[in-house]
Amino acid sequence: MTVHITRRAALGTSLAAAVAPWPSRAQQTSTIRIGILTDLNGPNAASNGHGSVVGTTLATEDFMQAHPGIKVEVQVADYQSKPDIAASIARDWIDRQGVDIISQVNNSAAALAICSLVQEKDKVALLTGPASSAITGKACTPNHVHWTYDTWALGKSTGGAVVASGGDSWYFIGADYTFGHQLAGDTANFVSHAGGRVLGTVYTPFPETTDFSAFLLQAAASGCKVIGLANSGIDTVNCVKQAHEFGLTQKTKLAALLMMLPDLHGVGLATAQGLLLSEAFYWDMNDNTRAYGKRFAARMNGWMPSMIQAGDYAASWHCLKAMAALGVDKAKASGRATVTQMKAMPTDDTLFGKGSVRPDGRVLHPMYLFEVKSPAESKYDWDYYKLVKSTPADQAFRPLSEGGCALLHA
After folding, report:
1. Three-state SS for 345?
2. What is the pTM of this model?
3. Is 187:154 a contact under the CB 8 Å cutoff?
4. Which of these, 254, 264, 262, 177, lies nearest to 219 by C-alpha position?
5. 105 neighbors 112 (Cβ within 8 angstroms)
6. SS3 for 226-262, per residue?
7. In the sheet where 101-104 sits, what is the strand order?
């Protein structure tokens, strides 16, 4: 397996930067090519970025060991979380470099653009990073699957469970773009349906906001029991740190609706203890996840994987197995046929366990609500979470009938 990183990825340059091309399709027609579009240097790089490249690489290595007659190559680019750049890079990869699979894509707007492109070009998209539940709703296509999590699953795992445990009044602080609005809205619905109250919501300019103190104090002044953080990456990190600095966490519970392990590592247990968050994967769940964590950490300077970086492994593994079952030449000829094969085969890997890909492209697996440990409760490196509640795979994601996916009526 060869990893090619574009100059665009390495230097963060403009779209006109040179790309290291693969050999032509005529030279290597049987090689499967994966193009990873990710955030290598931006606010979400810790939970995506280089770790997503490692997760995908581990999957390709394991696959080629099991299928020595099939070669897999990987290309990587930093698309700067801009949908137009993502679409331009992906189109170039498909048209000129024979890419079969576009993977990762942590920004929802960019992911939606990629969904349209792979349908037009009859290729495959493995979306492990974006959050929008519309990806398997009105924006569903026969050429993509959505792995790991979405706004509906995060809201279900966090909102209803926290209300049931006594956190029945909420105030939301959300990022002022589609993701933040959808995440706050989905979670608010679950809070209300569980009998809780939403006392208010404030949206912060994105990505311009770094000082959240006024918004946090506004939320605390409402008298809410829970402040829900409908943002991600460095924004969530700043909110958690500033809430701790103002002493808000002594009286009010923080629920980070999308915060992942690498982000938490940067905050530290002394500041984040007691924080509630939902994930689809945690490295210390069982022997299999711990084994993956150790393999991953060996290539990431000791850092453990996020749920997205675990999803990169699982999505690539399942897609490659489906291509092998279908026949590589047939799979490369039609992304739609590959995704159909993925839906026909149960998912089964050591990270997420047994699951399935629904007709709308939603991958089903459990979701977990965790509470962050105190420093005294943590016994070893990266021992950060204690499990509060598990949501089974058949309950963790929006019901198939409620998403509005046109594939169900095709």
Report:
1. coil
2. 0.92
3. yes
4. 254
5. no
6. EEEEECCHHHHHHHHHHHHHCCHHHCCEEEECCCCHH
7. 3-5, 72-78, 32-38, 101-104, 124-127, 144-146
pLDDT tens-digit map of 137-188: 999 999 999 999 999 999 999 998 899 999 999 999 999 988 999 999 999 9
Q: Which residue has the tokens 């939606």?
A: 112
What are the residues whose beta carbons fall under 8 Å from the beta carbon of 63, sequence distance 6 or more? 70, 72, 316, 317, 320, 321, 324
* Alpha-carbon span 59 to 284, nearest angstrom: 19
pLDDT digits (tens, 9 = 90+) for 309-367: 999 999 999 999 999 999 999 999 999 999 999 999 999 999 999 999 999 999 999 99
Amino acid at 381: D
What are the structural domains, with CATH classification, of the chain? Answer: 3-149+287-365 (3.40.50.2300), 152-281+367-396 (3.40.50.2300)
pLDDT tens-digit series, residues 51-69: 999 999 999 999 999 999 9
**Max CA-CA distance within the chain?**
66
Structure tokens at 94: 């498909």
Q: Is the pLDDT of residue 1 over 70?
A: no
Q: Is the pLDDT of residue 387 over 90?
A: yes
pLDDT digits (tens, 9 = 90+) for 199-233: 999 999 988 999 999 999 999 999 999 999 999 98
- Which runs of E-coded beta strand occur in 164-320? 169-175, 197-204, 226-230, 253-256, 276-279
Beta carbons within 10 angstroms of residue 213's beta carbon: 14
Q: How far apart are the first and last CA of the chain?
A: 38
Residue 386: Cβ within 10 Å count? 12
Cβ atoms of residues 266 and 287 within 8 Å:
no
Q: What are phi and psi of 214, to 5 degrees?
A: -65, -40
Q: What is the spatial distance between Cα 97 and Cα 127, in angstroms, rounded to a whole number? A: 20
Q: Can you give the pLDDT at residue 10?
A: 38
Dihedral sign from CA coordinates of 398, 400, 402, 407? positive
